[in-house]
Amino acid sequence: MNQEHPKETKSNHKNNALGDVTLQNSQPQRAISDEENSAEYAERVIALKKEQSFSGPVPHPSHAEHYESILEGSFDRMLSMAERELNHQQTLDKFSLEASIQDSKSGRLYGLIALVALIIAAVITGLYDHEILAGAFLTTGALGTISTLVMGRRQKNN
After folding, report:
1. Which of 41, 93, 121, 135 has an alpha carbon 20 to 30 Å from 3's alpha carbon atom?
2. Residue 101 and residue 112: Cα distance in Å, rounded?
3. SS3 labels along the chain
4. C-alpha to C-alpha distance for 99 and 102, rounded to whole angstroms
């Protein structure tokens, strides 16, 4: 009793970033007995997919021979290019760090100069009987100093 059944086409419609894609799977559909199903299952080959990923400025070391076969010395050129790029990045990082340190030192110096100027202004105005103005100068200097110290500690903790 071997009956042929017409082919049925399964269609999976998927939408991806490049547009619509329709996948079709044409397989004859027939009833499979339990015996055939278990025999088919026993004969199935299980395939394992091995996937590797490699990230870096140069290709994977196992590909070095292929590059050398195309152009002799190409892998060495890639290594020297990666070394130059690394040296360049380290130089930029060093300059950035030095500039940040210099900026911090300058900010502290200018803050100290402003604080001393406010204290001198408070003393001078206090000597000329302007106590309210002298208090305003001292309050401004004190609040600025305290807020800088508190904010500096918060930034270090984060």
Report:
1. 41
2. 17
3. CCCCCCEEEEEEEEEECCEEEEEEEEEECCCCCHHHHHHHHHHCCCCCCCCCCCCCCCCCHHHHHHHHHHCCCHHHHHHHHHHHHHHHHHHHHHHHHHHHHHHHHHHHHHHHHHHHHHHHHHHHHHHCCCHHHHHHHHHHHHHHHHHHHHHHHHHHHC
4. 5
| pTM for the structure as a whole | 0.49
Dist. CA 124–CA 9, nearest whole Å: 96
- Provide mean pLDDT across the span 3-24: 43
Q: Where are the domains of the chain?
A: 62-157
Residue 133 to residues 20, 22, 84, 138, Cα–Cα distance (Å): 75, 81, 60, 9
For residue range 37-54, what is the model confidence (pLDDT) as tens digits?
666 665 665 556 677 777
Instruction: Give Rg (Cα) of the chain.
Output: 38
Burial 30-55 (b: 16+ CB within 10 A, else e): eeeeeeeeeeeeeeeeeeeeeeeeee
Joined tokens for residue 18: 């490049």
Dump pLDDT digits (tens) for 53-73.
778 888 888 888 888 889 899
